[in-house]
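in:
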């Protein structure tokens, strides 16, 4: 049985493959809208670090992201110690950045504390 096609989170009216690796132009355009993120040295991946008042706030942030990651079927690589969270995004299935990473990064930015 053919798997249901995945929802696209950004392409209004057009069906675009959310798992396709970004082209150089798409990557540049996407990163221009994610100024708090940076490329990981030696990887086609993006990363951002966060600091919270305490562990409770940090883990609450991680919980929101975990629920969205499950909904999107797209999961972060992350590290947490006490009030610090470091998140790296890449699409393992294509070995680099896809539109899913950009969509999840935008969601994470919306959940992040406004310093
Ligand atoms: N998360 N970051 C990331 N990259 C993937 O390729 C990926 C995922 N979560 C689930 C997922 N792929 C599934 O579609 C299976 O391919 C594991």
């Amino acid at each position: 049985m053919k798997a249901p096609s995945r929802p696209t989170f950004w392409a209004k009216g057009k069906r675009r493959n959310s798992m396709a690796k970004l082209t150089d132009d798409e990557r540049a355009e996407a990163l221009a809208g994610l100024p708090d993120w940076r490329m990981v040295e030696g990887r086609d991946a993006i990363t951002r670090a966060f600091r919270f008042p305490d562990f409770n706030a940090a883990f609450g942030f991680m919980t929101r992201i975990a629920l969205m990651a499950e909904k999107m079927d797209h999961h972060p690589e992350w590290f947490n110690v006490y009030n610090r969270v470091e998140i790296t995004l890449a699409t393992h299935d294509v070995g680099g950045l896809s539109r899913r990473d950009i969509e999840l990064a935008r969601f994470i930015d919306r959940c992040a504390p406004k310093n």
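note: Helices lie at 24-32, 55-72, 99-111.
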